[in-house]
Amino acid sequence: MTEKKLELYYFDECPYCQIVLAALKETGLDKKVTFFNTRKDPSKREKLITDTGRGTVPCLYIDNKPMHESRDIAEWLHQYAREQARN
Questions:
Q1: What is the residue-level pLDDT of the chain in tens, covering all 87 positions?
Q2: Nearest CA to 75 among 55, 54, 52, 58?
Q3: Are 5 and 62 in contact (CB under 8 A)?
Q4: Strand 6-10 relative to strand 33-37, pairing
Q5: CA angle 26, 29, 32 (to 5 degrees)
Q6: Which H or E element spans position 45?
Q7: Is 78 inside any structural domain?
Q8: SS3 (DSSP) at 87
Q9: CB-count exposure of residue 23 (10 Å: 0-12, 13-18, 19+)
Q10: Domain encompassing residue 62
């Protein structure tokens, strides 16, 4: 399995983002993700709106395809980490 390009749009005060940040740390994928804080860089929030019609975070781009919903993202991260570990 090839490595995927991962980009997380988030901000620290968001409790749903904290779920995703914890999953990233648990899986070790935090070292493989590019982080974009939408509060520190409002242009990133605008990109979310343009791409998805939503400005909500967290949003994980997986090979340039957005995924919303913290629990879905966390589940995907754990599964992806398991697949990476097998290879």
A1: 689 999 999 999 999 999 999 999 999 999 999 999 999 999 999 999 999 999 999 999 999 999 999 999 999 999 999 999 998
A2: 58
A3: yes
A4: parallel
A5: 160
A6: helix 42-52
A7: no
A8: coil
A9: buried
A10: 6-68
Q: pTM of the predicted model, to two decimals? A: 0.95
Indicate the SS3 state at residue 3.
coil
Residue 53: CB atoms within 10 A of its CB come to: 7
Is 75 inside a domain boundary? no
Number of independent structural domains in the chain: 1
Q: How far is CA 81 from CA 3, 11, 25, 59, 74, in A?
A: 10, 23, 11, 18, 11
Q: What is the pLDDT of residue 69?
A: 97
* CATH code of 14's domain: 3.40.30.10
DSSP class of residue 57 equals S
**pLDDT value of residue 49:** 97
Cα 71-73-79 angle, rounded to 5 deg: 105
